[in-house]
Amino acid sequence: MKVINTRQPEKKPFAGPLFTGPDVTLQTLLPESKDYDVNVVNFGPGVRNRLHVHDCEQVLIVTAGRGIVATESEQRTVTVGDVVLFAAGEKHWHGATDDSAFSHIYVSRRGIACRIVD
Prior knowledge:
The protein has strands spanning 12-13, 24-28, 36-43, 52-54, 58-71, 75-79, 83-86, 92-96, 102-109, 114-116.
């Protein structure tokens, strides 16, 4: 058994082509898991990721701030305690509102790539 607090892992820069700005960090929670990617992603105000898709379900658990989660047909504001499920193959994006930083834990199957879609 392993118990870890979400404040323990170091915040590492995580900016890249998936994101609309550089103010993004990643905290890896369970690097030794063989089956799941479990990480905290922290977005600065107004930063989000681009429309993308995964080949498996993705779960987001909001841990701080206010964010936006969206698909091609729906957009919702989420806050601490909200849990979001994106279906495999569902085009979506998520990130911070303009006036708030935003953090979520994401859980997905290990080794499943994220693909940006136009």
